[in-house]
């Protein structure tokens, strides 16, 4: 019998490596507004808190200009709509993990701070049909992670108790989200942020590779 009834995954940096497309689109949006671009690796620390915050972090001291932020944000969305799947791909071992979880009777969900339309589109393109029981991006009715509201709403939909959920993510935002929701957490060391950030944020369990999660469930 499985320890958990539901596994909820962060998306970017956990299930998919989307850093290249995010960086390309953001850099193009910045350059359209005569703002400096950044190395791709810098975007590891810009992402994680939704697109609007990604834009603000990339803009540096220009982020106080709300009109400019809105314009860059709109440009990014147009570019990302065209290019969000050019470089993005699942991490090695993720698809096998998802199949094993489903085979074990565990419900599998995605919870992302990425806009809901982009989260659903990317998952639909990169993963098999019916791979997930639920895919949620940023919804207007819920604050972004690390607020626990959306994660708790997912548990309500599954009629799942907190102690029967495992949340998996790659950043301090994800660690704090799990803490705020009072659910168990496993860090994804293979993702954008790495082991040190996860440990510093208080993660007690960290998987080096996706397949290691199976031993926890």
In short:
This protein is of the alpha/beta class. It has helices at 19-32, 51-59, 66-83, 94-103, 116-126, 149-158, 172-181, 195-201, and strands spanning 6-9, 16-17, 89-90, 107-115, 134-138, 165-169, 184-188, 206-207. It has two domains: 6-17 and 88-215, 3-Layer(aba) Sandwich (Rossmann fold), CATH 3.40.50; 19-83.
Protein model, in words:
The protein is α/β, with parallel strands linked by helices and 217 residues long. It folds into two domains: 6-17 and 88-215, 3-Layer(aba) Sandwich (Rossmann fold), CATH 3.40.50.1000; 19-83. 41% of the residues lie in helices and 16% in strands. The chain has helices at 19-32, 51-59, 66-83, 94-103, 116-126, 149-158, 172-181, 195-201, and strands at 6-9, 16-17, 89-90, 107-115, 134-138, 165-169, 184-188, 206-207. The strands form two sheets. Strands 5-4-1-6-7-8 form a six-stranded parallel beta sheet, sandwiched between helices. A two-stranded antiparallel sheet has the order 2-3. Helix 1 packs across helix 3, helix 2 (51-59) packs across helix 3 and helix 7 (172-181) packs parallel to helix 8. The longest helix is centred in the middle third of the chain and has 18 residues, at 66-83.
């Amino acid at each position: 019998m499985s320890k958990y009834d539901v596994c909820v995954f962060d998306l970017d940096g956990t299930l998919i490596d989307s850093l290249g497309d995010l960086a390309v689109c953001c850099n193009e949006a910045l350059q359209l507004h005569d703002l400096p671009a950044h190395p791709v690796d810098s975007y590891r620390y810009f992402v994680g808190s939704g697109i609007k915050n990604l834009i603000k972090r990339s803009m540096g001291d220009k982020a106080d200009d709300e009109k400019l932020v809105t314009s860059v944000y709109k440009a990014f969305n147009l570019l990302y709509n065209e290019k969000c799947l050019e470089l993005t791909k699942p991490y090695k071992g993720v698809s096998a993990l998802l199949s094993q979880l489903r085979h074990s009777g565990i419900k599998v969900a995605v919870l992302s701070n990425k806009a809901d339309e982009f989260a659903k589109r990317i998952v639909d393109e990169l993963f098999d049909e019916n791979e997930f029981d639920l895919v949620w991006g940023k919804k207007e009715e819920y604050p972004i992670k690390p607020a626990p509201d959306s994660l708790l709403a997912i548990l309500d939909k599954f009629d799942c108790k907190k102690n029967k959920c495992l949340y998996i993510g790659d950043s301090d935002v994800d660690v704090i989200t799990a803490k705020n929701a009072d659910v168990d957490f496993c860090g994804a060391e293979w993702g954008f942020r790495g082991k040190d950030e996860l440990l510093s944020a208080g993660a007690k369990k960290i998987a080096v590779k996706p397949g290691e999660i199976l031993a926890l469930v």
